[in-house]
C-alpha cells in the first residue's frame, strides 16, 4: 500500500473565496475583497489598475462568497462525513488585525477560528492552516505600499506570533504564504502591490519577494519556538515546464522557466538565494533589499515540508513567439498538442503530477504535500439539485493514480492530499462561481444570486470511498 495509515486526505479552501462576512466580527478590509468579477479583475490583481475602494460599477464576489462565515459548522460536518483527515483553510489577516498594524488583535476574530479548530478536533480533522492566502489588509497597502515596504515583515511577524500562541495545541500544520511565486504574476493579489506610473515593476516585485521570504523564515522560527510540534511548510504554484521539443534552445528555455518558478522554494527550503537568480537580477539591475542578518535568518529557518498546487503542466518554446497558448492558473503556456483541456482551457496532465512531484522531491529531499488539485467545470444540477460529475471523478482518479506511483514506484515522501475547492467557492482567477471544483454544490451564481443551499455531488460519495480505502479504491461505481 503506497500511503501510510496516517496519510492526510482532505480538501482545501481559502478564506477570501468561501468565508464572506467581509464586514462582520470586527473584520477589516483586504485587497482580495476589492477584486471584482468581470473585465477589470485581471488588471487589478496584476497591480496595473489602482482599485482600493468599493464602487457601484462592479460586483465583488468575496464580500459574501459562499457565506462560510455562517455555515462553517454544517460544512465541517459534510467534510467529516466524507472522512476528511485534514482540512486546509486560511486565516483572514483582517479578522485578526483589521488594519494590520494594531497593537492588539481582534478577539472576535481569534475566537471565530478557535471555534473552527476545536470543531475540527472534535470531528477528528487535522487543520492545515495557511497564514496568508493572497490577503493583505488594505490599510497596509494605502499606508505602507504593501509588501514593497520592510515594515510589513514586522506586521506579519506579529500576526504569526499571535496565532501560533493562541492556537497552540489546536493547529500543528501551517503554510506561510499561499502560492508565493504568484507574486511575480499577480502582484496585487500576491503582495498588495499597486504600481505607480514610471515605477520599476521588477524592482518592486523583488523588494516584496525578499520581504515575504524574510517574513516566512521568521514565522518558521517563531512557530518552532512556541511549539516544537509545529510543522511549517512553504507553498508553490507548481507544474513542470516541458521543452516543446528536443531542440536544445527549448530545453534551456524550459530549464529557465522552471528556475523562475522555483526560486522562492529554493530560499525557503535550502535557505539561500540560488546563483541563477542572483546572476539574472544582476543583469537586470534589480537590487534585493538584503540587510545585515537577513541571510542568516533565511539560512537558519528553512521549512519542514513543501506543499504545492498542481493543476497542469506547462510548455516552454523559444521560437515562434506566435505559437498557440493555453490557459492555466494565471500562468500562460504554449499549448501541448498531446493533452486535452478543461472548459477553461487548462490542459489536463495527470502524469505531469508524478513528474512534478519527482522534480520537486529530487531537488529538495523534503516531504511533500499536495494541497491543491482539482477540476474547475460547469456543473449542471438535475431537478433535485444533484450533479453527476463523472468528469471530476475521472480527473481526480487519474491524478491520484499518478500520485500513488510517485510514492510507490519513485519513493517520493508524501504527507497528504487536499483537493482544491472541496466545496464550490469563488474562483481566484476569474471570480466566477460557475467554475466549480467542489464535491458539494452551492446554490449561488456568478452575480451572488442563489439560496446558498449545499448539495452533495456524485464525487462526494466517490471521494468518501477513496479516503476510506486509503486511495486503493478509485473506481467510479
UniProtKB/TrEMBL annotation:
Record key words, sorted? Glycosidase, Hydrolase
Q: Does the keyword Hydrolase apply?
A: yes
Q: Which GO cellular component terms are attached?
A: cytosol
Which Gene Ontology BP annotations are present?
Answer: carbohydrate catabolic process
GO MF term set:
6-phospho-beta-glucosidase activity
EC number(s) reported in the record: 3.2.1.86
EC supergroup of this enzyme: hydrolase
The question of whether Hydrolase is a record keyword is answered with: yes
Which superkingdom, per the lineage? Answer: Bacteria
Q: Which residues does the entry assign to the active site, renumbered to this chain? A: 372
Family note: Belongs to the glycosyl hydrolase 1 family.
Name this polypeptide is given:
6-phospho-beta-glucosidase
Amino acid at each position: 500500500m503506497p500511503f501510510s495509515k496516517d496519510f492526510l486526505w482532505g480538501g482545501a479552501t481559502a478564506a477570501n473565496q468561501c468565508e464572506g462576512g467581509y464586514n462582520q466580527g470586527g473584520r477589516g478590509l483586504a485587497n482580495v475583497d476589492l477584486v471584482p468579477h468581470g473585465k477589470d479583475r485581471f488588471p487589478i490583481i496584476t497591480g496595473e489598475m489602482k482599485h482600493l475602494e468599493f464602487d457601484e460599477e462592479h460586483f465583488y464576489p468575496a464580500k459574501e462568497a459562499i457565506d462560510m462565515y455562517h455555515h462553517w459548522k454544517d460544512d465541517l460536518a459534510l467534510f467529516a462525513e466524507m472522512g476528511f483527515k485534514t482540512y486546509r483553510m486560511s486565516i483572514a489577516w483582517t479578522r485578526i488585525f483589521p488594519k494590520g498594524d494594531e497593537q492588539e488583535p481582534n478577539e472576535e476574530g481569534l475566537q471565530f477560528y478557535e471555534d473552527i479548530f476545536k470543531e475540527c478536533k472534535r470531528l477528528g480533522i487535522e487543520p492545515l492552516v495557511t497564514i496568508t492566502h493572497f490577503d493583505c489588509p488594505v490599510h497596509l497597502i494605502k499606508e505602507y505600499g504593501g509588501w514593497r515596504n520592510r515594515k510589513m515583515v514586522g506586521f506579519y511577524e506579529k500576526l504569526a506570533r499571535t496565532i501560533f500562541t493562541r492556537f497552540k495545541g489546536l493547529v500543528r500544520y501551517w503554510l506561510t504564504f499561499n502560492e508565493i511565486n504568484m507574486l511575480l504574476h499577480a502582484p496585487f493579489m500576491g503582495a498588495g502591490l499597486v504600481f505607480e506610473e514610471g515605477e520599476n515593476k521588477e524592482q518592486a516585485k523583488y523588494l516584496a519577494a525578499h520581504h515575504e521570504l524574510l517574513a516566512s523564515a521568521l514565522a518558521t522560527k517563531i512557530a518552532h519556538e512556541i511549539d516544537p510540534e509545529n510543522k511549517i511548510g512553504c507553498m508553490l504554484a507548481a507544474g513542470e515546464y516541458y521543452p516543446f521539443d528536443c531542440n536544445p534552445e527549448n530545453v534551456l528555455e524550459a530549464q529557465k522557466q522552471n528556475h523562475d518558478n522555483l526560486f522562492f522554494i529554493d530560499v525557503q527550503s535550502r535557505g539561500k538565494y540560488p546563483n541563477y537568480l542572483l546572476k539574472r537580477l544582476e543583469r537586470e539591475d534589480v537590487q534585493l533589499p538584503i540587510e545585515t542578518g537577513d541571510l542568516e535568518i533565511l539560512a537558519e529557518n528553512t521549512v519542514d515540508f513543501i506543499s504545492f498546487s498542481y493543476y497542469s503542466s506547462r510548455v516552454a518554446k523559444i521560437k515562434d513567439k506566435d505559437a498557440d497558448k493555453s490557459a492555466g492558473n494565471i500562468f500562460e503556456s504554449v499549448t501541448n498538442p498531446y493533452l486535452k483541456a478543461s472548459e477553461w482551457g487548462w490542459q489536463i496532465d495527470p502524469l505531469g503530477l508524478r513528474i512534478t512531484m519527482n522534480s520537486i522531491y529530487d531537488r529538495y529531499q523534503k516531504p511533500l504535500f499536495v494541497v491543491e488539485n482539482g477540476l474547475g467545470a460547469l456543473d449542471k444540477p438535475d431537478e433535485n439539485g444533484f450533479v453527476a460529475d463523472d468528469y471530476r471523478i475521472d480527473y481526480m482518479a487519474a491524478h491520484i493514480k499518478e500520485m500513488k506511483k510517485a510514492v510507490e514506484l519513485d519513493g517520493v515522501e508524501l504527507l497528504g492530499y487536499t483537493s482544491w475547492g472541496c466545496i464550490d467557492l469563488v474562483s481566484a482567477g476569474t471570480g466566477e462561481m460557475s467554475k466549480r471544483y467542489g464535491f458539494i454544490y452551492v446554490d449561488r451564481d456568478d452575480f451572488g444570486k442563489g439560496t446558498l443551499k449545499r448539495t452533495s455531488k456524485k464525487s462526494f460519495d466517490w471521494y468518501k470511498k477513496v479516503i476510506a480505502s486509503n486511495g486503493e479504491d478509485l473506481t467510479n461505481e
